[in-house]
Amino acid sequence: MAVPVAPTELALFAVVGLLGGAHCLGMCGPLVTTYADRMPTDSRGPSWFELRQHALFNLGRTASYALVGGLLGLLGATVYAGASLGGVGDAVRGVAGVLVGALVVTVGVGRVLGRERVGSLAPGSLGGGGLFSRVAGVATSRVDDYANSPRIALLGAIHAFLPCPLLYPAFVYALGSGEPVAGALNLAALGVGTIPTLFLYGTVLGSVPAAKRAAAHRVLGVAFVFLGLLPLLHGLGLLGVPVPMLHVPHYVPPSLTP
After folding, report:
1. List of the chain residues with pLDDT < 50
2. Residues 137-161, buried b or exposed e (16+ Cβ, 10 A)?
3. Domain residues for 74?
4. Among 77, 183, 204, 227, which one is least packed by beta carbons within 10 Å?
5. How many CB atoms are located within 10 Å of the residue 190 CB?
6. What single DSSP character describes residue 124?
7. Model pLDDT for residues 189-219, shown as the tens digit of each residue
8. Residue 197 and residue 78 in contact, taking contact as beta carbons nearer than 8 Å
């Protein structure tokens, strides 16, 4: 039976995106600045054309997050369905919940301690730096062609495939959930949460002080810890470990029981 999308999860992913927007300035900011420089400017402020282009960029970025989240959720669902047929469904879900939860909690603790590299799940830290450098190169080479056309959405879409210590823990979470719809909507919520910071960066602000970014990262770490505890405790419960459960309003943990 499909698990309904939990409003609590959606809210947490949106908060992660909102707080992680400060981090996105370091990852996405250079590309935003690059394509923004290609647009016609107006001394009176951003034009409707600029606003449209930034909106398309962020729409493409968010849509690609949702697509990858949905596909990973589908992959997880396929694995869980096979495990259920083999009579080990709860065991597999339990192990997956513990692993996913522990990884996400580790990322959160690293951010709270100000050590972002601790528990990083970005592909660059897993040996995929060359591939993702080429993806970034493709994005940069297309800036001149796409910056002033609707194809700027494709520049945003590429960001789902760039190394990001904010995004990839969320992808792992979507995989572990085994819920395609929830995976897509949760990642979409994260993408929407990052939009205000990047949108303002591209049109008005241009920068965020380092001290404020550091503070946001620590609060983001707390959100990651709380998010990771949901599958971690549920996974331990499926494995028969007596642990206290977080009573979160409207949170429906994944289950193989109809």
Report:
1. 1-3, 118-128, 205-207, 249-252, 255-258
2. eebeebbeebbeeeebbbbbbbbbb
3. 7-38+47-238
4. 204
5. 28
6. G
7. 999 988 887 766 555 544 455 666 667 667 7
8. no
Amino acid at 244: P
Number of C-beta neighbours around residue 48 at 10 A? 8
Is residue 227 a contact partner of residue 17, using CB atoms and an 8 Å limit? no
* Position 179 in a domain: yes
In angstroms, the CA 66 to CA 60 distance is 10
**Domain assignment present for 252:** no
Quote the DSSP letter at residue 151. Answer: T
Query: Dihedral through CA 198, CA 200, CA 204, CA 208, nearest 10?
Result: -70
Q: 221-256 pLDDT, tens per residue?
A: 787 788 788 888 878 888 888 877 655 544 445 544
d(CA 119, CA 107) in angstroms, rounded, equals 5
Number of structural domains (the chain) is 1
Q: Is residue 147 part of a domain?
A: yes
- Would you put residue 207 in left (φ > 0), alpha (ψ -120 to 50) or beta? beta
Q: Which amino acid is at 35?
A: Y
Residue 248 lies in a domain: no
Rounded to whole angstroms, how far apart are CA atoms 235 and 97? 4
